[in-house]
Write a structure and sequence with these properties.
With 162 residues, the chain is an alpha/beta fold. Helix content is 48%, strand content 8%.
Amino acid sequence: MLIVAIPKSVSTSLVATLSEVHGLPIATREIRESVLMRRPIAPGFGQIARFHRRDLVEIDEQSVAAIAAPGLLAKFHFPPTPRNQAQLRHVPKIVLLRDAEEIVSSYRRGEESGAWPTKSYELAYCFSERGWQARARETGLIDELRAFADGWRAHTGEMLLL
C-alpha cells in the first residue's frame, strides 16, 4: 500500500498504525536506500527538498515496481510532477494533504522543541511564528507546498484523497 503525503501530515503515525493493524511490513526505508537514492530531485520542489531530500524525486519504472509490490506498506513525499503522476496513475494510493501555513508552523514547533531540527538555513534565524511564515513565503516554500497539494488534488489516477 502506498501513501503519498505532503510533509508534516501525520503520515508516519498513519503508516505505523496501518502496519500494526494489518500486519504489513513498512518498506519505506528499504525502498529509499535501494531505489530512490539514485533518483534526481524533482524540478520545482527545491525548498521542500531542503527538508525531505530523499523523497522529492522523479520516480521511474523501477521505483514503481518496488513501491507497488504486494504485501508492503510505504510512505513517501513524492511531488506531483507530470512524470510522477503518470508513473503512479494506476497504483492505488492514499494521498494525505495539509494546509501550507500549518506545515510551516509544524516545522517551527519541531525546531523549537528539538524534536525535528530544521535543515533550512533560511529559517534557522527566524524566532517567531510571524518570522517563519514570512520567510517561508519569501523563499517560495509556501508556494511549493501549495503546488504539491494542488497537484495531487488534480491527479486523475487511483487514489483516496485525505
